[in-house]
Specification:
Blueprint lengths: L1 H6 L20 E4 L6 E4 L5 H19 L23 H25 L9 H17 L8 H15 L16 E5 L9 E3 L2 E4 L10 E3 L2 E5 L15 H21 L4 E4 L5 H9 L3 E3 L4 H11 L3 E2 L12 E2 L2 E8 L7 E8 L7 E5 L4 H30 L2 E2 L12 H9 L3 H12 L17 H23 L19 H7 L6 H28 L11 E10 L5 E12 L8 H8 L20 E7 L2 E9 L12 E6 L9 E2 L2 H4 L3 H10 L4 E2 L12 E7 L2 E5 L1
Helix pairs in contact: 4-5, 4-9, 5-9, 6-7, 10-11, 11-12, 12-13, 12-14, 13-14
Keywords: Transferase
Organism: Coemansia helicoidea
Enzyme class: transferase
């Protein structure tokens, strides 16, 4: 009678009886009391058919014992003395779908409710980022009317405004380490989302586990899940089985003691362990990558359990707003479908995930690379805006854009008789009329070899025209098409006024002029041959500087000869500006130069960074703190070397401290003229001012 009543109980986790499978030693589970404890009664084997039949008979009972604790965010139904059945499985699935849809809508609403980049960037910087997005999308062939530009701007605005790496606490300086990007084909670009948490590709171990859990407790396991016998120890098979069973029971008991709702494991879960966890109403996600587990631990605050001993210290379970598992189908997906786990509602400053929709899987890969770069560039612009504010600078935009190309040069190329040579250098130079830096005030000039090539080509045209005019009517004059490329024509023009010069002398002067400068044009052509790809913003995410170290106390004796250093912005070869200053203020460092004769400390040296025609010298010395009560903080100001005026003293902000030192050098070498605000003076902050940073009655100066 009891069995018949139990068989009428609807399913909770298991809604499809035909898909349930049990081990060969299946046991019968019966309800004992209101606590829903389980008792296992051993059964004899009667063949596969009898075992399957017995599994079908006990399935409703098992389902009644495995009710999810907080599925769909609702309170558990109170137990009634009359044995009222729980909600039907169809109703539970419908409620899960509604909760997942609501979660997706909240993620999409973040794009419109954040205020966009206008909330964190000034207008000049905002226009600069918009130009970057349009330029990068055009490079991958995305139409301007596709709507992707605004979607990317909204997604990036959420990531930059919400995620704050703690660089001083050990976090990496690149924001992209904490902003993941997932591609889910299908839908429209407007369906893209920003999730304040983690999204990763995985599914639940069993399809009947709850696909939505509100405020879940999350446990992370990377410990061995199977008993490992010592190789030197020989035991009987029965003892081996008892030890294995004891290990499983101990593991399940300790995991269940932490009362998690979901367990993430980095390896496949054995069947006995899985059964034990399911009896305790714990959902399982297995074979999760270690990198994903570390990201989940960061965003949810969960402690990673690496061994059984960790359970004795009560490992901390993580939490978030909601867990949802969604399966998407699209013809461009492997096997046409893929499942994703969404952990939303985490601490937004610790990380987030951008979910891209609206294209095929391969096309989303190109857009993903663009979004990844724009996240890093916009983050740098955001930090640079704080730096300009601290420097009391009035920023001006750099000059770029195809509309700023020289119309005179274009018309000259069109009218040139030497079309191939004349247009080659001009076409190469026109490619540099693009945004090539994340800094709005930076204009990257084209390589000097191309500039020189263009100058020589114009000189060749000039000297050829002069030569043709002077040799007009002469029978022995060379044809214009036979003239080699190169030359300035200075000597030849001078010889025009020498009436005694013969025709042979004129040809020799003409040929020598062309040969003298033809090597420059050849060098430019070789440069273009070795660099056939189009100029792109991707190629300008770093700077190469020559670094040298000199001792000021020894008459600027060279301690380290000039060495080339390639700095890739916000990578391992870069360093935050605040960390660079902290290292400079450390008085315990001695000279680490190549010269073993120098015994002076590092703060008595001069660090020089050379790039192109520019040079930045960094020195340090004693200086009374401008604001005594702020002697424990880094203060910054600038002093004009031409008129003696200075900007106000301000405390370095956290955003300025996180700014890239490589970018700081780039803006110093390439920035447009920056004037101090409030009309302090009309001189350039980078070229005419000495920028100062003070801490503990010491000052670091950039000049």
């Amino acid at each position: 009678m009891a069995a018949a009543a139990a068989a009428a109980v609807p399913l909770a986790w298991f809604s499809d009886e035909q898909e349930a499978s049990f081990r060969s030693n299946a046991v019968e589970i019966a309800a004992h009391d209101d606590k829903q404890e389980c008792a296992f009664l051993p059964q004899e084997r009667h063949g596969l058919g009898a075992e399957l039949e017995r599994g079908r008979s006990i399935l409703p009972l098992l389902a009644g014992q495995l009710q999810p604790t907080r599925a769909v965010g609702s309170e558990p139904a109170p137990a009634s003395s009359g044995g009222a059945p729980p909600p039907p499985a169809a109703g539970r699935l419908r409620a899960e779908r509604e909760a997942i849809d609501q979660l997706s809508r909240r993620a999409q609403q973040r794009l419109s409710s954040s205020g966009g980049l206008a909330a964190i960037l000034p207008q000049m910087a905002l226009r600069h980022v918009q130009e970057i997005v349009r330029q990068l999308l055009a490079e991958i062939g995305v139409p301007a009317d596709s709507g992707w530009d605004q979607v990317i701007l909204d997604l990036v605005a959420n990531a930059v405004a919400r995620v704050r790496p703690n660089v001083r606490g050990g976090d990496k300086m690149d924001l992209r380490h904490y902003v993941r990007i997932k591609r889910i084909p299908g839908g429209a670009p407007a369906d893209s989302q920003y999730v304040t948490g983690i999204v990763f590709t995985k599914n639940l171990v069993h399809r009947q586990m709850p696909r939505y859990v509100a405020a879940p407790r999350i446990m992370l396991l990377t410990l061995p899940l199977e008993y490992t016998r010592q190789p030197s120890r020989y035991v009987s098979l029965d003892e081996e089985l008892r030890m294995q069973q004891g290990f499983v029971e101990k593991l399940v008991q300790r995991v269940a003691g932490a009362a998690p709702d979901v367990v993430l494991v980095d390896k496949p879960v054995p069947g006995q362990v899985l059964e034990g966890l399911m009896r305790n109403r714990i959902a399982v996600i297995q074979s999760v990558k270690r990198g994903v587990i570390r990201a989940v631990a960061r965003c949810t605050g969960a402690e990673i359990v690496t061994s059984m001993d960790k359970f004795s210290s009560y490992p901390r379970a993580g939490s978030c707003g909601a867990l949802a598992v969604q399966t998407f189908e699209h013809r461009s997906l492997p096997e046409f479908r893929k499942s994703f786990v969404f952990l939303d509602g985490c601490i937004e400053a610790l990380g987030g995930t951008i979910v891209l929709r609206g294209e095929s899987f391969d096309k989303l890969d190109d857009i993903k690379q663009v979004v990844d770069l724009v996240v890093g560039l916009t983050y740098s612009v955001h930090l640079e805006t704080a730096l300009l504010t601290d420097e009391f600078a009035l920023a001006v935009p750099g000059k770029y854009g195809p509309e700023r190309a020289s119309s005179a040069a274009l018309s000259a190329a069109g009218d040139s008789g030497d079309g191939s040579a004349g247009s080659l250098a001009l076409l190469a130079l026109s490619e540099y009329d693009l945004v090539l830096s994340s800094s709005p005030s930076v204009r990257i000039p084209p390589p000097h070899v191309l500039v020189c090539m263009r100058e020589k080509e114009l000189a060749v045209r000039l000297i050829s025209d002069k030569f043709n005019q002077m040799t007009a009517g002469r029978r022995d004059a060379p044809a214009a098409g036979d003239a080699p490329a190169g030359g300035t024509g200075m000597l030849f023009v001078a010889s025009r006024h020498q009436g005694a010069a013969s025709a042979n002398r004129m040809r020799q002067q003409y040929a020598s002029e062309l040969a003298l400068h033809g090597s420059y044009i050849h060098e430019g052509r070789m440069f273009l041959h070795n660099n056939p790809d189009a100029v792109s913003l991707w190629d300008y995410q770093g700077i190469v500087v020559a670094y040298m170290l000199t001792c000021r106390k020894s008459g600027y004796r060279l301690c380290t000869a000039p060495q080339y250093h390639q700095i890739a912005f916000y990578t391992g070869t870069d360093i935050p500006l605040g960390q660079y200053l902290d290292t400079s203020f450390n008085l315990d460092h001695d000279c680490n130069g190549e010269s073993s004769r120098c015994a002076h400390p590092m703060y008595e040296h001069c660090h020089s960074y050379i790039h192109g025609a520019g040079r930045v010298d960094v020195t340090m010395g004693e200086y009374p703190c401008p604001v005594e009560r702020l002697s424990e903080s880094i203060l910054m100001w600038a002093e004009c070397a031409r008129c003696g005026r200075h900007t106000p003293v301000t405390r370095m902000s956290d955003e300025t401290a996180r700014y890239s030192f490589g970018k700081y050098l780039e803006t110093t070498f390439y920035s447009a003229p920056l004037r101090p605000r409030a009309a302090i003076c009309g001189h350039d902050l980078h070229r005419d001012f000495v920028r100062c940073f003070a801490l503990h009655n010491m000052a670091v100066r950039f000049s």
